[in-house]
Amino acid sequence: MKKYPKIKYPNDDKATGVFASGEVVVQEKLDGANFRFTHERNLDEEYHTPDSKRHIVFGSRNVQYKNVKDESKQFSKPIKHIRQNVDPVDIKILEDQYDSALTFFGEAMIPHTLSYDWESTPAFVGFDVYKESEERWLRQPEVRFVFGELGLSVAPVIAIVPAEDWDDYDVDTKIDSEFGDVKAEGLTFKNYDTQTFAKYVREDFKEKNKQTFGKSQKQQTSGAEKLSYQYITNSRIENKHTNLLTRVNGTH
Question: Which residues constitute the domain of residue 239?
């Protein structure tokens, strides 16, 4: 099963294409755990089972589960949610439409740092779909269509910004989350034209592996870091989000 890439900050070499051309999709970054699933027919026979409740194979970011017994209890709620909503036959129908195996990625909405409204928050929220035959990520309209067909929620899109206009936009990460009375963890920036993703995490968001983002210009040393300062600095990101939402009204 395809593994979701670790999303880097814009000052990383692997993320420099995110503002290069095409469109930048700005999406709420969720505070949970990376999770994925696909139909068992896309995997080796060791993942196949006659169990009618199986057919969908699940995986965390780093581990895919061979059978129901292997499935981590940590993800019991997301797995139950997906099984209750997703008919494996619908996955096959979608794959036939796209003439390709598909791998579905999203956030397992399990308690982590933010206090979401757990009564109304779905146990799984999708955010990307990988088309195996072309080795590419589906664009957001396709992502929303696919997850909609499967009966699953999708991470909110805050804005869709032409890359050529990026410097004219002021992006504020201190937005309210769609899933509770809390500020969002941050944002992801996705360019499906260049197949490049990047992220921003609020400085006051506390988690173990948090990295410092948006250093002073004096501290920017590498070319990639200079690119980061040019395109996304804290002062720009935390500025006039209202103007952005007004100009891209209807993309939420």
Answer: 13-30+156-247
Q: Are residues 87 and 142 in the same domain?
A: yes
- For 25, the token pair is 């999709």
Q: Judge whether 65 lies within some domain.
A: yes
Task: Please tell me which of 50-59, 85-94, 169-178, 211-220 the model is most confident about, judged by mean pLDDT.
Answer: 85-94
H-assigned helices in the chain: 76-85, 88-98, 140-150, 223-231, 234-237, 241-247
Closest among 80, 68, 25 to 191, alpha carbons compared: 25
Q: Are residues 78 and 119 in the same domain?
A: yes
Could you give the number of structural domains in the chain? 2
205 inside domain: yes
For the record, the structure tokens of 252 come out as: 């939420």
Do residues 93 and 185 both lie within one domain? no
> 90 pLDDT exceeds 60?
yes
Task: List Cα–Cα distances, 229 to 162, 197, 208, in angstroms.
Answer: 19, 17, 24
CA 156-178-94 angle, 5° bins: 35
Average pLDDT, the chain: 83
Same domain, 25 and 46: no
Overall pTM > 0.90: no
- C-alpha torsion sign, points 8, 9, 15, 21: positive
Band the pLDDT of 237: cuts 50, 70, 90: very low
* Any domain includes 219: yes
For residues 132 and 98, give the distance between their C-alpha atoms in angstroms, rounded to a whole number.
10
Cα 178–Cα 142–Cα 185 angle in degrees, nearest 5: 25
